[in-house]
Amino acid sequence: MSQRPDTRTLWVFGYGSLMWQPGFPYVEARRARLDGYSRAFCIYSLHYRGTQERPGLVLGLARGGTCDGIAFRVADADASAVRAYLHARELIYGVYREASVPAELAGPGQHQTVDVLTYIAETSHPSFAGHLPLARRAAIIRAARGKAGSNLTYFAATLRKLHDLGIRQPDLERLAVCASVSGPFAEAAGPEVLEGRSRAFCNRRGCKPSAVRNDRRHAFSYRRRLPA
Questions:
Q1: Which of 27, 31, 96, 150 lies 20 to 30 Å (CA to CA) from residue 202?
Q2: Could you tell me if residue 225 is inside a domain?
Q3: CA distance 178 to 185
Q4: Model confidence over 206-221: pLDDT tens digits?
Q5: Catalytic positions, written as ranges
Q6: Per residue in 162-179, is it b (16+ CB within 10 Å) or e — as a string?
């Protein structure tokens, strides 16, 4: 039988870069599962892993399926600061919607169900890429770079973390083969190697940026933040 702890406790669900680079203090990290959402490369990145001229492609929570990731429990004293940090990190231009959804925590003994703070893809936003063809997703990821580094580095770090957690996701494994971040060499490659590979792909003839129109007026800002 599930136990539902005090809902005032802040849990944060990581499914992409938050899994391997949370950037905030926490007192506990647990494997967790969301029902009704799946991890997908469905968001054009114009800041961290791409630019306006050459967008990258990052993970979002899309409707349907399930998603395994990590739930981080935050100390009460840090909750307000962590919410502010995540707001600044995740809600740059409104393509993610902040939401509180139930997740099942895995662990020894009884499973627990808690409400987690997470970020869901806003399907009506101009930077929502949707389900692009496999080859197109791979081409974007290989060639894009942004403020935080290459899209390849982001993908490789996510794959490593999923592997460490024992999480299998066949569609990402197929994408990894097409994007050249699968196999022993790619899995062991550091950021410098992947940055160089990204530049090499970008400089190939025929590598063209994607056209993405993004509304900088933050048309979705009224939906972006939950009350503390």
A1: 96
A2: no
A3: 15
A4: 445 444 444 444 444 4
A5: 90
A6: beeeebebeebeebbebb
- Centroid of chain to Cα 175: 15
- Measured CA to CA, the distance from residue 151 to residue 201 in angstroms comes to 12
pLDDT of residue 222: 35
Token look-up 């982001």 returns 154
167: domain CATH number? 3.10.490.10
Torsion on CA atoms 36, 40, 43, 49, rounded to nearest 10: 140
Residue 219 belongs to some domain of the structure: no
Domain annotation covers residue 213: no
Structural domain that includes position 101:
10-207
Task: Report d(CA 49, CA 154) in Å as an integer.
Answer: 8
pLDDT at 92: 86
For residue 192, pLDDT beyond 90: no
pLDDT in tens, 15-58: 999 999 999 999 999 999 999 999 999 999 998 999 989 999 99
- The two tokens of residue 113 are 């169900």
User: What's the CA gap between 128 and 131, in Å, rounded?
Assistant: 9
